Amino acid sequence: MSQFNIISAASESTVVAEYTPDACRSDSYQSEAALEQEFLRLLCAQGYEYLEIHDEAALIANLRRQMEGLNGYAFSDSEWTRFFRDCIAGANDGILEKTRRIQLDHVQVLRQDSGASKNIYLLDKKHIHNNRLQVLHQYEETAGSHDTRYDVTVLVNGLPLVHIELKRRGVAIREAFNQIKRYQRDSFWAASGLFEYVQIFVISNGTHTKYYSNTTRSNHIKEQGEGRNKTKKTSNSFEFTSFWADGNNKVIADLVDFTKTFFAKHTLLSILTRYCVFTSENLLLVMRPYQIAATERILNRIEVSTTYKQYGGIEAGGYIWHTTGSGKTLTSFKTAQLASKLPYIDKVLFVVDRKDLDYQTMKEYDRFEKGAANSNTSTAVLQRQMEDPDARIIITTIQKLDIFVRKNKGHAAFRQHFVIIFDECHRSQFGDMHQAITKAFKNYHLFGFTGTPIFSVNAGTGKNPDLRTTQQAFGDKLHTYTIVDAINDGDVLPFRIDYVNTVKEKDDVKDSQVRAIDIEKAMGAPERIREIVRYTLEHFDQKTKRNSFYTLKGQRMAGFNSIFAVSSIPMAMKYYTEFKRQLTEQHRDLTIATIFSFAANEDDPEDALPEEGFETDTLDKTARDFLDTAIQDYNQTFHVNFDTSADKFQNYYKDLSQRVKAREVDLLIVVNMFLTGFDATTLNTLWVDKNLKMHGLIQAFSRTNRILNSVKTYGIIVCFRNLQKATDDAIALFGDREASGVVLLKGYDAYYDGYEENGKVVPGYRDLIDELSREFPLGQPITGEQKQKDFIKLYGNILRLKNILSAFDQFAGHELLPERDFQDYQSVYLDLYQAYRPKTDGDKENINDDITFEIELIRQVEINIDYILMLVMKYHESNCKDKSIMGTIDRAIDSSIQLRSKKDLIHGFISTVNAATDVDRDWQSYVQQQKQQELEQLIAEERLKPAEAQRFVANAFRDGALKTTGTDIDQILPPVSRFGGGNRTEKKKTIIQRLAQFFEKYFGI
Predict the structure, then answer these.
(1) CA dihedral over 408, 412, 415, 420, signed as positive or negative
(2) What local confidence, expressed as pLDDT, does residue 814 receive?
(3) Long-range CB contacts (< 8 A, 24+ apart) of 917-921?
(4) Phi and psi dihedrals of 771, rounded to 5?
(5) How many helices (H) does the chain have, and how many strands (E)?
């Protein structure tokens, strides 16, 4: 279906290698309309066709013309009606169905009038420049909940695939994000729902421009749900929008520069057709610029070296240095997928080391595309896959590949054209196995991904002097994205490090080896271990923020979990025993687990963490028996059945990793396992009693810095050994000399008393509390919109600083305000939140996008119904005479975003309390009785269908969300004439509002 005869083709880069912005810029004021006109002018200059389309009829007519042009086929009217109804705008299709169609099913089948079938392409993904780009602005949608007018939309073959929302310079970019959120709620679904085809959103205020996928937006709405979860930040909120950048990771933020790069026709079409991944979990992932640049540089190296027949050496390969946590698995998946489609490549081998496990990568690859890759449980299965021409992508371990090579000398596969990708290419791939593999294969391209390369500075004294560094093993560095880049982009969190001194050295010991032996002996002293465990348990809740609440996959979570890294197996055994003993002594309920297997001695001169496999039979009897006992404890806790036998131990590893990710394990004691290649967003603290340096140090620290939500603002490292110099050296090597200012958080004094940065004074917690008390004294009303907004901003800053300071030991007792005053200020903050948040009553919507409420930071200290019932019990015990308790109850309710909607219910119950009341039992029966009465009243007043309404509400409480879209809600509505002039729509809106209020009142109690 190519419309052009290709004379010559060049592989154009999607990400520009280096971008220099125009030096000449106007400094005059620019209105939103002027910004929009300039944006449109730039797009038209880049070859976009401008359309004067403002309504759906014209949009559909243009879509038909574009589909006919792309496919070289003229639809009859009946064919177009049928194709549009069945293949483009199905009545039951939503964002996910339309996204799946664009990403995975872009060739649709037309049933022609003759009865024959014809393939119709929605996009030409093979020859991307056959796709037509058009732009329209100020499109009006009148069929939604409100009349809306969209800023700028880019059509690809007539379908709206990219939407841009603009705000004038000087206005917060978040306003544009919130505007799109409202469009999703009010109108994207309206009429034929063509705007649900939008794949990528772009938001800009001229100065800053960001992009994000449609599921970032739709999942944000879904995760917010109804009722009490409306305002929580999620993994799909504004924090997960991305900047565009050049190949050197220099952010391209200004709208003019962004338009010249991101909206270049080749770049935009490549992103839409090649660099989006629609996962099996229905998430659309748009790759970041550094991921795209790395992928294209690998593909370019394959192409060039193949053209010059240079395969079979390091000239044909290279390595990618992308820091831990930056999404290397997605980059490697896309690289493997695109490389496997090259006509001259027979197979792509993705090789992991044993500890990371091929099953983990396989799971990730399956998430990106079901069935895209093949994994293997044994070398025999690997051999079958090597001989199967249909197995294009194979995931295996370096050990299995090494066995295959040794057992199959001269195998036909070795003469085929292979791309071999090593994940986390550490020193385990630099030895004899590496040489055996590269000697066996003849026509290969070898690539490595690493977050921490081995340079000559941190290279050990391995056997082969030619294979000591990453460059010697894999070839040129093709792309770099360091930990500094990742933290600046908001991809990972910075670290906060506490050094807790546990051994005081004698000053008179001169010999360094004697000193090292003395120290190591002292490290294992029972009294030292006892004190460290005591310190850990004493500070566990504080470091892991156990008083902070958030939602993880629908479950309410209290804080985070942690890993405790120790220097050896005997130390792991000592720590596990001591933790168990002190927990029993304190009658404390924390879930502790451990895992280890045979590994090289820690005194290995390399900086990498020694490899731990799954060979428990090489453990000495004492260690293996101990591990069996620890696994029995685990079995008892989780009602499972594992032990140290070969298969069961591997399954124990898998089960343990899942439970750590689900935050079911509070503290995991490890020697080396889990310190590389393991990602769990709920981990925030690493307790360290082992010597770490360079690569191993960064790998271990990076277990804690995955982004989750606004409660988790940094990874916490608690060092029981002096690792300060080792930390500084590692960060300087893998970031740059100035990196520590970005990678490490500031100290307690800086946050408490303020600091100076780039010539600006940044106020500390003490300054903000002084300002709060001075400008907004309790008991005095805050009048005027500007004063209210100033209070919201100030209190939001206090909440953020308090969240950071709460993990410092010194903060306890220095909060400066009594808890009661905090509660009262929080009540005022929530009152203003209620006043400023968008209303649901039609045109009276009060839009204040320039205000950001830190609602999740309030949720983390949320007062729940159990706390209120405890106060009610106290009131009951005072024979209902202590009226001060009633004041405490009211203040607690007013300071809680969850309990405000339940205030009348709580007061109603308190009025029934007497000497005979059993508070817990009677509260439950009171709630059930009130809930049923209120629901029956609502059904009667709104004339809902009783059985259907009861079932609908029961499902909402079961699912934790009120489903107000789809057909379920329509089935409970009373029969209303469809010719009542929009009366049905108004009636439905009223019913949804009442049901939402009812749900919010009774949910969670």
Answers:
(1) negative
(2) 86
(3) 917/876, 919/869, 919/872, 919/873, 919/876, 920/869
(4) -65, -40
(5) 36, 26
Q: What is the pLDDT of residue 8?
A: 43
- The DSSP output letter for 106 is -
Separation between Cα atoms, residue 767 and residue 772, nearest integer Å = 9
Under 8 Å between Cβ of 256 and 42: yes
The tokens describing 891, both together, are 């203040």
Query: What pLDDT is attached to residue 839?
Result: 44
Identity of the residue numbered 310: Q
Confidence of residue 298 (pLDDT cuts 50, 70, 90): very high
- Please compute the mean of the pLDDT values over residues 307-327 and round it to a whole number: 88
Residue with tokens 């799971």: 363
Output the CA–CA distances (angstroms, integers) from residue 24 to 21, 31, 253, 256, 261, in the order listed.
9, 19, 16, 12, 18
**Is the pLDDT assigned to residue 823 strictly greater than 50?**
yes
Which range has highest mean pLDDT (201-215, 371-385, 905-919)? 201-215
Angle between helices 289-307 and 328-340 (to 10 degrees): 40
Interval 929-956: pLDDT, tens: 888 888 999 999 888 888 888 888 888 8
Report the b/e string of 418-431 with b at 16+ CB within 10 A.
bbbbbbbbbbbbbb
Let me know: does 214 contact 199? Beta carbons within 8 Å: yes
**Closest C-alpha among 100, 96, 1003 to residue 554:** 1003
Region of 759 (left: φ > 0; alpha: ψ -120 to 50; beta: rest) is: left
Least-confidence region, from 32-46, 587-601, 749-763, 952-966: 952-966
* Sequence letter at residue 345: I
Q: Supply the pLDDT for residue 90.
A: 87
997 neighbors 1003 (Cβ within 8 angstroms):
no
Taking the C-alpha atoms of residue 11 and residue 492, their distance in angstroms, rounded to an integer, is 32
- For β-strands 318-322 and 477-481, DSSP reports them as parallel
Residue 706: count of CB within 10 angstroms of its CB: 19
pTM: 0.71
Provide the residue count of the chain: 1005
Res 318 pLDDT > 90: yes
Residue 831 C-alpha from the chain's centroid: 31
| Token duo for residue 442 | 């003849």
Of the pLDDT bands very low, low, confident and very high (cuts 50, 70, 90), residue 2 is very low
Residue 779 is encoded by which pair of tokens?
């008991």
Structure tokens at 722: 């002096």
Task: Write the DSSP string, 868-895.
Answer: HHHHHHHHHHTTT--HHHHHHHHHHHHT
Three-class secondary structure assignment of 450-478: ECCCCCCCCCCCCCCHHHCCHHHHHCCEE
Q: How far is CA 812 from the centre of its chain?
A: 31
* DSSP-derived secondary structure letter, 496: E
